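Predict both folds.
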Amino acid sequence: MTTTDEDLISWNGDGLPPAIEQIRQRIDQLPRWQTIGVMQGWWPILVHLDEQLREVDPSYQLTQVKQKLGTLEVHLKGPVTSDAVHAALETSVAQSRVTCEVCGRPGSLRHSRRGWVAVYCDEHKGYDDEYRT
């Protein structure tokens, strides 16, 4: 079954969609609480990154996936020596800088009153102030 970007962003099923769960399972020595630390708007970016990384190394592993200071951070297990892997990671980070983390539409870096920094579209620009505690 192929999952479209829209399917990922609008996911409201139990748990994570299969494509994201597959990525979560690549996190090495996964603690019970560990999950994918980004919202659904960036899930398509992760799935496309996963496809590229699997082409280079089908058994690659992650140590962490999160949002930090408004951009996607993906940590791979072991040193990254492949130019293709570096390029894929850089492309994903660049995409995250202009993609709303909530809905996947074009966005820009926003600062909330609570001190959070994230990328949101105009519709979600107050998301941190409203939903994060």
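Second protein follows, with its predicted structure tokens after the sequence.
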Amino acid sequence: MTHKHRNALRTPGDLVLCDWDNLAIGQPKWDLITVEVHCRRFGYGLAHYEAFADTYSRDITLEPGYKTLAAIRELRMVTTNARKIHHAPETVTEVKRRVQGLRDNDTELRWHIL
């Protein structure tokens, strides 16, 4: 039996990455901001992010344009989930909570994974 967990398929003794529809070559900043947003929004904590930035030798939060890039990434994460509400109506409360957090400029609001 095959089980799908986000972007991986797992079978006994095998793991396959999938969902490569957004694969592209681009600016590393986009990947780095995604890690920072996930650490901050999903409760991994500052220490986890700092360990990542230290290992990678680059802290996106110290770079020009960080706040704008973070805001764009967060908005994209919210709108992606908002588009899926008709398939997963149980997520509407979380999406509305995230939207309100963005409106309130609450950059520390913890999100729940949908």
